[in-house]
Amino acid sequence: MSLANPKVGFVSLGCPKALVDSERILTQLRVEGYDIVQTYDDADVVVVNTCGFIDSAVTESLDAIGEAIAENGKVIVTGCLGKKPEQIRQAHPDVLSISGPQDYGSVMSAVHAALPPKHDPFINLVPDTGIKLTPKHYAYLKISEGCNHRCSFCIIPSMRGDLVSRPVDQVLREAEKLAMGGVKELLVISQDTSAYGVDVKYAQHEWRGKAYQTRMKALCEGLSELGIWTRLHYVYPYPHVDDIIPLMAETGANGMPKLLPYLDIPFQHASPRVLKLMKRPGAVDKTLERIQRWRGIAPDITIRSTFIVGFPGETEAEFEELLDFLDEAQLDRVGAFAYSPVDGASANALPDPVPEEVKAERLARFMERQAEISAAKLEAKVGTTQRCLVDALDGELAIARSMADAPEIDGLVQIQNGFMAGLKPGEFVDVEIMGSDEHDLFGEVAFDD
User: Fold this and answer.
1) What residues form DSSP beta bridges with 139?
2) Calpha distance 233→253 (Å, rounded)
3) DSSP H helical segments within 182-255, as ranges?
4) What are phi and psi of 217, to 5 degrees?
5) How many CB atoms lie within 10 A of CB 31?
6) How, if at all, do strands 441-445 and 385-394 pair?
7) CB of 340 within 8 A of CB of 153?
8) E strand map for 196-278
9) Helix, strand, coil abundance in the chain, percent, nearest 5
């Protein structure tokens, strides 16, 4: 019998929540003695973790499955698209197994069936932090699964189920372990971070000898004890979000903010009628008031959001309301999408769909308006000093991010003398900002005279 370990190839698609699912599967594979390989030729079997949220993601997932079958032949499918097995089987009848998101047991059973494990506990060692697909200095921290909302454009609850919160002590222990392993930035993710704990009635647990409720504020207070960056994503605009803003204005013993002054809140639109059609909160005036209040408490706060233009029934006047909201809210980071029907979403039945050419035109106008806002906000940072986290080196440059920049979705800080300054990935550095454009900042490390 061969002494080589069985080899698994892995393709991970979709959002950061799917990435965490992939990390958990990869960790279990390594625990059981499987090698993870980078090419189809080297793999004995391939696992594809799919996305199925919008049509383009479905196409990408089906294409990835097809490529894996063509290149390797033995393919196990999991993830969000796995909730539609008939669609996968119709396109690719030869896949070995199909399972939905978070179904780690089914994935491992399928791997065992296709490729029995051969584990030697003396040589197959996995780090305490598990297998990570992100760089060593940052990690996603998933605090819950599923969602209790029923937004008309979204099918996530049908794929991932209702909200299931992880116990707060379990989350804090994982975060502590990551910090001890060298992680400098935690990115808190879920489908609805601000609903954390509502399903378990905010049950109380102990960590480091102190009681914490399973609640967003208590979680943030615990994470603030770790002395690293903590960034919140996918925060639904509930009133109790106000409770965490003071933490963003506080500084820890190491000079770091206790909680990064950064909120990722997908507002989606600004017209009350369109928001009602979306089944989203519609009190736009109150939203603007709260944004101003947050900035009063934590002046450095960065607010990022996403919006949908061209939603069914959206009129030109309602789109103009959205542009007016941008002007007034002055959000720091914004992404936008032209509405695309998602199979199974209730919004598909709404009347008065917006023509594709109108969607495209509105999206272009939206992004042009936001680009002007973003450019002005970044220009205002020229001449300031920003604490940054280095992600990579590129020739003479160090590529970093400020507190205002989440990885993959926001801007960058290009440090012109990064190589000369001896910077390394995962290192914090203060950067003098010397220039900007619509997305990024440019600066240098200040040397003492």
Assistant:
1) 186
2) 25
3) 216-223, 245-249
4) -60, -45
5) 17
6) unpaired
7) no
8) 204-207, 210-213, 229-232, 262-264
9) 35, 20, 40
CA 264 from chain centre, in angstroms, equals: 10
Q: What is the pLDDT of residue 105?
A: 84
Q: Which residue has the higher pLDDT, 363 or 155?
A: 363
> E strand or H helix at 293, and its extent?
helix 284-297
Nearest of 32, 56, 42, 31 to residue 9 by alpha carbon: 42
Give the pLDDT band (50/70/90) at residue 1.
Answer: very low
User: What does residue 93 show for φ and ψ, rounded to 5 degrees?
Assistant: -65, -15
**What distance in Å separates the CA atoms of residue 168 and residue 212, rounded to the nearest whole number?**
7
Q: How many CB atoms lie within 10 A of CB 36?
A: 16
pLDDT digits (tens, 9 = 90+) for 399-444: 999 999 999 889 999 999 999 999 999 999 999 999 999 899 999 9
Percent of the chain scoring above 90 in pLDDT: 72
Residue 306 and residue 266 in contact, taking contact as beta carbons nearer than 8 Å:
yes
The pair of structure tokens assigned to 134 is 């992100």
Contacts 24+ apart (CB under 8 A), 209-215: 212/168, 212/169, 212/172, 213/168, 214/165, 214/167, 214/168, 215/168
- Which residues in 339-405 belong to E strands, given as ranges? 385-394, 397-402
pTM here? Answer: 0.80
- Residue whose C-alpha is closest to residue 20's, from 89, 88, 104, 126: 104
The pLDDT tens digits for 266-320 are 999 999 999 999 998 777 778 999 999 999 999 999 999 999 999 999 999 999 9
Digit-coded pLDDT (tens) for 322-370: 999 999 999 999 999 999 888 888 898 999 999 999 999 999 999 999 9
306 CB neighbour count, 10 Å cutoff: 16
- The distance between the two most distant Cα atoms of the chain, rounded to a whole number of Å, is 72
- For residues 265 and 281, the answer to whether their CB atoms sit within 8 Å is no
Nearest C-alpha neighbor of 180 from the set 136, 243, 119: 136
In the structure encoding, which two tokens stand for residue 346, read together?
């209730």
Q: Which helix (H) or strand (E) holds 142?
A: strand 138-142
The helix/strand/coil state of 444 is: strand
114-118 — which CB contacts under 8 Å span 24+ positions?
Answer: 114/44, 114/45, 114/74, 114/76, 115/6, 115/8, 115/34, 115/44, 115/45, 116/6, 117/6, 117/32, 117/33, 117/34, 118/5, 118/6, 118/33
State how far the alpha carbon of 275 is from the alpha carbons of 79, 117, 333, in Å.
Answer: 29, 51, 20
Confidence (pLDDT) at 239: 85
